[in-house]
Amino acid sequence: MSAAPAAGPRTTAPTAPAAPQQPAARAATPVFPAQDPRPVSVDGSSTTWRVGSTYRGVFADPDVAFAGGRWYAYATNTSGLLLPTLSSTDLSHWSPIHSSGGAKYDALAAPGAWTTSKSGGAGLWAPSVAPMGGGWTLAYAAQQSTLRGERHNCIGLARAASPTGPFRALAAPLECAPASPQGAIDPDLYVDKLGRNWMLWKFSGVPSGQPSTIYVRQLSADGTGWAPGSQAVPLVANDYGDGFEGDTIENPSMTTFRGVTYLFYSVNSYRSAAYATGYAVCGGPTGPCQKVGPLLTTARSGTLGPGGASAFVVGGSLHLAYHAWDPGRVGSLRRLHVASLMQLDDATLTVAHAG
């Protein structure tokens, strides 16, 4: 398939993924730092977005990045912000970033002109931020149109000089998945060990046709569009009839830890406590990926509907930032949590602390 224009939406329907294969064996094992999966308990003084306080309110679909000795977390719109952004030095206490004058601040100046999102910061979902091309790239999902009665979503990019923005949106969407009524959502930006840029996303599926599927495609070196000659590659798809997965797979997050590439994903209905996180082991950014199965569930973690996860590494430890429903508030309040994971000898993962 020929390369799509650098900033234009894809115009061909993706193909269904091939049957999963066993991931390639690892080469001679290098020496890695000892794992130290210490517990991380997220705390805060306010459920209201308030400059100068530590925040513990609504924060869904978190994505985490590190720069300049600080951690930054981004989320689906809340508190009237297009790109709500928190910062932390210890992963436990998170405060809203603010303007140089100490005022409330939105890290995304404005969404792309292609969006039909509501005003007041509503309608932008599941952002991902990563250092690319000497700056920072933001990927986000938003509504472009209505297709067959459904909110049809596209993924757009924005650029900034720093992880705090202000991010400036590129003019056209990058990925629209026109074959799916609900389009493309849940972008994840990933930089591999060779310094190549990638974007993963959810193809929302076709009723009575292709199930929801996680795709990946290489981005350009400057993080502003597709790499020349690149094409979309399917990694994993929803298994209809699977009790754990329900009827969807979404919210991908890829990372490499101790020589193994992992793909984390969310399954089931995000509106319920059945929402959960599974994972796969992959041979590299383009797979093949073999599903391992459940990792974070309500029963295993003690948190309700743990999903929307973002993987990141701290020293010798692998963590997942994720959201979960507050007890008694399923369907209305999703808070930030940070889980600590342990890699076992066979490269599978276990949850050391759910957070």
From TrEMBL:
**Where are the membrane-spanning stretches?**
none
Q: Where is this region: Disordered?
A: 1-46
Has UniProt tagged this entry with the keyword Hydrolase?
A: yes
Q: Which GO terms describe its biological process?
A: xylan catabolic process
Molecular function (GO) terms for this protein are: hydrolase activity, hydrolyzing O-glycosyl compounds
Positions of the record's site feature: Important for catalytic activity, responsible for pKa modulation of the active site Glu and correct orientation of both the proton donor and substrate: 186
Q: Does the keyword tRNA-binding apply?
A: no
Q: Which residues form the active site?
A: 61 (proton acceptor), 250 (proton donor)
Annotated CDD domains: GH43_ABN-like
Record keywords: Carbohydrate metabolism, Glycosidase, Hydrolase, Polysaccharide degradation, Xylan degradation
Low complexity composition-biased segments: 1-30
Q: Which domain of life is it from?
A: Bacteria
- Family the UniProt entry places it in: Belongs to the glycosyl hydrolase 43 family.
Q: What is this protein called?
A: Glycosyl hydrolases family 43
Organism listed in the record = Nocardioides terrae
